UniProtKB/TrEMBL annotation:
<protein>
    <recommendedName>
        <fullName>Glutathione peroxidase</fullName>
    </recommendedName>
</protein>
<feature type="signal peptide">
    <location>
        <begin position="1"/>
        <end position="21"/>
    </location>
</feature>
<dbReference type="InterPro" id="IPR013766">
    <property type="entry name" value="Thioredoxin_domain"/>
</dbReference>
<dbReference type="InterPro" id="IPR029759">
    <property type="entry name" value="GPX_AS"/>
</dbReference>
<keyword id="KW-0560">Oxidoreductase</keyword>
<keyword id="KW-0732">Signal</keyword>
<keyword id="KW-0575">Peroxidase</keyword>
<dbReference type="InterPro" id="IPR000889">
    <property type="entry name" value="Glutathione_peroxidase"/>
</dbReference>
<dbReference type="GO" id="GO:0004601">
    <property type="term" value="F:peroxidase activity"/>
</dbReference>
<dbReference type="Pfam" id="PF00255">
    <property type="entry name" value="GSHPx"/>
</dbReference>
<feature type="domain" description="Thioredoxin">
    <location>
        <begin position="12"/>
        <end position="180"/>
    </location>
</feature>
<comment type="similarity">
    <text>Belongs to the glutathione peroxidase family.</text>
</comment>
<dbReference type="InterPro" id="IPR036249">
    <property type="entry name" value="Thioredoxin-like_sf"/>
</dbReference>
Length: 183
């Protein structure tokens, strides 16, 4: 009898884990290695229920100065719950071969404070789960610094090409729409 009562809380905990997984949008299922850190970024834990901008980056791309604008947008909207995730990629052959160099470009050269991952594939069959889902909901990035605005439910509100600068009114309007969405 005593054992049965001890098992009930275990079953309840197991059920809660399944409920938490069910609440996590498909887009945010999985982990990515954090740039120059030993930890993993659990996408669901960190970003579920929050408005999010996802951008694929490259250290040696002509659009790399957009890091400054992205950081400014992040700081401006962070107090309203906005999260930002940068995912470096060498899919367009413009990323550093060494993660330490990638980190230097992001953190030292551009002062990035939003979450950055280790370089990941973002296109095709090798793309990470996150980018496969972004492509399903919108389209695959056509170049570096392709930007996705995701609402609190894990749905892509809008995507923007590399040519769209972070201070673009349409980009900002999409972010404000994502912030206004309710979980």
């Amino acid at each position: 009898m005593r054992i049965r009562w001890m098992l009930v809380p275990l079953f309840m905990l197991a059920g809660a884990g399944g409920a938490l997984a069910a609440q996590c949008p498909e887009l945010l299922r999985g982990d990515l290695p954090k740039l120059r850190a030993k930890e993993q970024v659990n996408l669901c834990e960190q970003f579920a229920g929050k408005p999010l901008v996802v951008v694929n980056t490259a250290s040696y791309c002509g659009f790399a100065p957009q890091f400054e604008g992205l950081e400014a947008v992040y700081k401006e909207y962070q107090g309203q719950g906005l999260e930002m995730l940068g995912v470096p990629s060498n899919d367009f052959k413009q990323e550093a071969k060494d993660a330490a160099e990638t980190a230097k470009v992001c953190y030292a050269n551009y002062g990035v404070t939003f979450t950055m991952t280790e370089p990941q594939p973002v296109r095709g069959a090798d793309a990470t789960h996150l980018f496969r889902e972004l492509a399903k909901q919108s389209n695959a990035p056509k170049w570096n610094f392709y930007k996705y605005v995701v609402d609190r439910q894990g749905k892509v509100v809008a995507s923007f090409s590399s040519l769209t600068k972070p201070d673009d009114p349409q980009f900002r309007a999409a972010i404000e729409q994502a912030i206004a969405s309710h979980p």
